Amino acid sequence: MIEFINEYQIFKLDTKNTTYAFKIVHDDFSVHLYYGKRNDDAERLNALYSESPVSFAPYNRQIGVNFSLDTVATELSFFDSGDLKDTAVKIQNENGDCVTLFKYRGYEILDGAVKLGQLPNSFGADKTLCVKYEDIVSGCFLYSYYSIFYESDTIARFNKVVSTGKKAVIKKIASGQLDFGKADFTFLSICGSYYNEGHILEYPVHIGKQGVYSNSGHTSHKFNPFCMLKSPCATETNGDVYGIELVYSGDFEIQAEKTISGFIRLMAGINHETFSWELEDYFYTPEMILTYSDRGVGQVSRNLHNHLRNHLINPEFVVKKRPVVVNTWEASYFDIDEEKLFQFAEIAKKIGIDTLVVDDGWFGKRNDDTSSLGDWRVNKTKFKSGLRAFSRKVHDLGMNLGIWIEPEMISENSELYRLHPEFVLKAKDRECSLGRHQMVLDLCNPKAIEYVVHELTETLADVRLEYIKWDFNRSLSEVGSCVLPDGKQNETKHRFILGVYEMHKKLTEAFRGVLFEGCSGGGGRVDAGILSFCPQIWVSDNTDPVERVRIQNAMSLAYPLSAVSCHVSNTVLNAMEKGTDYGLRFNVAAGGVLGYELNLLQLTGKTKEEIAKQIKKYNAISPLILTGDLYRVDGLDCGQSAFYILSKEKDVACVYYYNVGQSKRNVTLANILPNWKFLDFETGKSVNLDEIDLTAKTNFLHIYQVLSVKNENA
Ligand code: DGJ
């Protein structure tokens, strides 16, 4: 699966359907040869490399005019050493210049994956290649890792820089780079804003630089740390597509650069504009996941889904049925107390909901969003008998209990701030801005982490809980840390993220067996880093079903359906709906991990019956959401969308269809799934696909037994 072909000096990394190859030339340089469809012809791979002189391209005086780092594709590129494109690694040397040049010094092939310091990374790799480089001026070694995941057709890359004692400051270090000789691609990404997540952005890669990034201190609503590079005619089911995803929750950048000659370079990693690092011993970059398929966008999504489910998400939760929750936020906001919530639990139990989630407002003096973050002690006015007793009562009903926390934050109006003002993340001599009336804890300070972890574990220690929602409701600004010396202030944002992961590690370990759900005002922190602690994420506060069709579709490009938490609510935003159509809302929310966010006390008997039926139906769908393969249907009109989930055994399928736009186009199930044969579970009869006319429907959701699959992509 990973071999070094001595004859050609080629490293060849194979997964089931892909090959990645690079070559050592002139003893010192690793040049990229190929990433694409499985290719076992080493001679042809070797023939992909050529050298020729190009005017103005700086060349190495020993090797001669034919070899320039500016004109060959490389595995990693180095600042100001002859490569005139944007480069992946820039280190400031003791002498103050930033000339960087790492040269090849050997390799090692390891079994399994390598743990990435304090950062989360993929487990269960088949093999890992570690390539060693040395820069003699900075005195640093660079180890570049490639882990291969044979079955999911994915490769995970990251780099480690090790100091040998000389003063060196890392100014930029990408997790990986992908050079394409002459190429033509469309750049596909997910962008948005608060309450408006999940817009798919696609444009041809143009000459110059383009990409996605965050400078908010968290991944942010603005862009997701993910992209695809599609060949221009690629579709859902055909064509060459590359997928890239970062396992990181802080400031990131994924950049594509194209030159006039058509050369494209893709780089991904920490956003170097808000980062630098004085190297003391070693530094790890976050991990970058790569995949490729010649079977279109759909297969790339499935590869990423398989990778995240099998190699990143806590295995304990991958196949375990997820709770169907009722969450108190949209139902009651801060107006909660134990009597009211117990009534919620009683109704919830009757209609098949299994978990009551107490959202914001249960602690300190939190009656609105102006106070108490950091004061993680139960509010005795709202929970007179305490959380422990409340949990016992809820469990006696046969219900499970969940709770909301926002551990990385601190309110100005809180006991914690009065006690520890130094716990606030803040640049020296600056006033810090507020966001939602709150400030951010300085997670570079281990004492701040310890304090909050201690408070939360004390308060929740004997409270039986099955679920914790972890929120994060503001972006970072005026960033600095009073525990770091002046020269290290620019390290604050990355150190903050290391603190975020440390806190996740500590709390998920303290509450083992409890399912954590990530959230950041909805979709402000949807990324593979968070997924390694929280198997599911609340991807938007927007629960309008029409908007959700778009949001969930976009998220499915990069994240498995089991990672996306979706609630039925009664927020009415869209003019299309007359009243609240719980049918549509359910059929949309059942495309992920289903929950409810409704005031159960206000529901009519009819609605309660409807919800009970929905949950029964969802319980049958839920195994497919957890482990099935997703197939999005291409070529429908704007506002129409369809997808199906097929079990791994290909014997059960769940078909989803929505028409939430203006389209009057005639659609039958036969259009969506030509030549399939189904048996209807409910009637036991075989299904004539032409007879299931979707034209007049705004939504459709049905689960079938599959008699034969005719889609060659499945
Ligand atoms: C933002 C989240 O996205 C909401 O679901 C809710 O938990 C609120 N925070 C609570 O303050």
Characterization of this structure:
There is one protein chain. This protein is of the alpha+beta class. Strands 6, 7, 8, 9, 11, 12, 14, 15, 19 and 20 form a ten-stranded antiparallel sheet that branches. An eight-stranded parallel beta barrel has the order 21-22-23-26-27-28-29-30, surrounded by five helices. Strands 5, 10, 13, 16, 17 and 18 form a six-stranded antiparallel sheet that branches. Helix 7 (446-460) runs parallel beside helix 8 (492-510). It starts with a strand and ends in a 6-residue tail after the last strand. (2R,3S,4R,5S)-2-(hydroxymethyl)piperidine-3,4,5-triol binds next to loops.
Brief characterization of the structure:
The chain has 714 residues and is α+β, with helices and mostly antiparallel strands. Helices cover 20% and strands 30% of the residues. The longest helix has 23 residues, at 605-627.
Q: Based on CA inertia axes, which overall geometry fits?
A: globular
**Estimated share of beta-strand residues:** 25-35%
Contiguous low-pLDDT stretches (5 residues minimum) are none
In DSSP terms (H or I, runs of 4 or more residues), the helix count works out at 13
Q: Could you tell me the mean pLDDT?
A: 96
Distance between the termini: 25 Å
